[in-house]
Prior knowledge:
Blueprint lengths: L2 H15 L4 E5 L2 H12 L5 E6 L3 H10 L2 E8 L2 E2 L1 H9 L4 E4 L13 H12 L5 E5 L21 E6 L1 H4 L6 E5 L1 H12 L7 H11 L2 H27 L29 E3 L8 E3 L7 H9 L1
Parallel strand pairs: 2-3, 2-5, 5-6, 6-7
Antiparallel strand pairs: 1-8, 3-4, 7-8, 9-10
Helix pairs in contact: 2-3, 2-7, 9-10
GO molecular function, one term: transaminase activity
Cofactor: pyridoxal 5'-phosphate
InterPro entries: Aminotransferase_I/II_large, Class-I_PLP-dep_aminotransf, PyrdxlP-dep_Trfase, PyrdxlP-dep_Trfase_major
Amino acid sequence: MxxxxxxxxxxxxxxxxxxxxxxxxxxxxxxxxxxxxxxxLLPGDGxxxxxxCFLSSINMLRYxxxxxxxxxxxxxxxxxxxxxxALRSGARAVILTPRAHNPTGCSFSxxxxxxIREILTRYxxxxxIIDDHFALLxxxxxxxxxxxxxxxxxxxxxxxxxxGPDLRLAxxxxxxxxSAALRxxxxxxxxxxxxxxxxxxxxxxxxxxxxxSLAESRRHYRRQNEKxxxxxxxxxxxxxxxxxxxxxxxAANAAEPANSPALxxxxxxxxxxxxxxxxxxxxxxxxxxxxxxx
Length: 294
C-alpha cells in the first residue's frame, strides 16, 4: 500500500476503533468479504447475514460455497435474539452493516450496538466482519458492535460510494492474525490494488474542494432522507425518531432520472417477506411525495 494512503487509513480507522489495527487494501467491499471468508472459513460453514441483505453479498456466499444464515433486521439493525440463535446453532462468521444497511437503510443505535457486543462476547471464536461501506457519506454516528474479546475481526470501509462505483478500493482494518490470512489470500490473486488508483484516492481524500463536496453530498442525502421520511409519515407510516433517519442509499442509483420512481420488487435471503427499494438521490420533493402516495 502507498505509505501516505496507509497513514491516512490508519488514522481514520483508529478514530473509531480506538485500537491499533493492521490495514490492507482490496478491490472493493465484496472483494474484501470474499477473501476474508475464504481465507478463514471452509466451504459449507455458516455465515450470518442480515435479512434482507445486499444481493452481491448473498451471491458471493453462494458461489463460494458458504451457507447463509439469515437474521432479520428492524429499524436499529440486526435483531440480537435471532443473532444469538444463529451463533448458538454453529455459524462461524457474521457480517454486520452498522450504517446505511442495504436495502433497508437502517443503522445501529447505540443500544443495539451494545446488545450485539454483549452477544459476541460469548462467541469469541466467531469471525466478525463489519461492512461499513457508507462511512464517508453517513450522517449517522459510528457505534461499534465489536467486543474486545473477539479473536478474529475486520472492519471494511469502501471508497466506491465516495469516489465512484468503478473505483474499486476498500480499506480493511483487522487484527494481526486475520490480516496475515488476508494477505496470503491476496497474494494468491490480484496481489495488489493499482498504485495509480491509490494515488488518486489519496489526492481526493486530501483535496479541500473534494472534501467540501463530500460534506455537501452527506447533507444532501440526509435532506432527501428527511423528505422521504416526512412523506411516509404523512401517509400514515410511524414517525421516525429524530436524528435516526434511515439512509436509503440515495447514492446507489443517482444516475436515474429525477422523475423515475425506481420502485422494484426485491427478493430477500429468506422468502418470508417482500419489499420494495426506492432510490431518491435526485428526486424532487413533489416526486417523492407522489411516489409514496402511489
